[in-house]
Amino acid sequence: MSRRADRLFQIVQVLRGRRLTTAALLAQRLGVSERTVYRDIQALSLSGVPVEGEAGIGYRLRADFDVPPLMFTAMEVEALVAGLRLLKAWGGGALAAAAEPALEKLMAALPPPRRLAAQQSRVFAPEYVNQAHVREAFDVVHGALGAHKLLQLDYCDVQQRITERVVMPLGLFFWGNAWLLATWCTTREDYRSFRLDRCRAIRMLDDQFHETPDRSLNGFLRAVRAGGS
């Protein structure tokens, strides 16, 4: 029964987020047959959920219908708990500090069975040592990303050579046990990535930048896929 209840709730969430949803799409999303979807739609209608549409065309919820938020499945709750724990352990100081109250609010909003399951999660993210400078660097980069401002880096590469770079920050990626900063490097006039733990100094400049098609996060990802970065 709990499996079906979760599935019915997921159907409502999908219908809320789309203008028209076919049974085939719902079946693919939920991993069930279309016949099961038809039965679930009928069950929702009989329970008072205003589902509009018909088989073969698609379904949608009446515009004025709403359901309480935070009705997560057990697996979704554990995913959120694990994600917040990872951020608290490996994120920058500001986001790590926000993770704990966010987790407390999540726990307070959950119904008792879901709260108990979340508290019993065995997925942990222990903090690693000597990461204070990485947390500080993360906060500077995170601020620059939000403000679209250039960064100045004093960077030590794998050969222990130190160079000064001015870069357009495009994104932060967690790679194994290190944060990588994706950039357009104005010094090299090309895409480059830098490990935060190798930044001897990092400073946000006053100059702002605007992404363009050839100097953007999507462009960086295309270059990585093409082996050019």
From TrEMBL:
For this UniProt entry, the molecular function terms from Gene Ontology, in alphabetical order, are: DNA-binding transcription factor activity
Query: Is the keyword Transcription regulation in the record?
Result: yes
Source domain of life is Bacteria
Q: Which UniProt keywords apply?
A: Transcription, Transcription regulation
Q: Ranges for the HTH deoR-type domain? A: 4-59
Q: Which PROSITE patterns match?
A: HTH_DEOR_2, WYL
Quote the Gene3D superfamilies the UniProt record gives.
Winged helix-like DNA-binding domain superfamily/Winged helix DNA-binding domain
Name the Pfam families on file. Answer: HTH_11, WYL
Q: What's the name of the protein?
A: Transcriptional regulator, COG2378
Origin species, per record, is Cupriavidus neocaledonicus
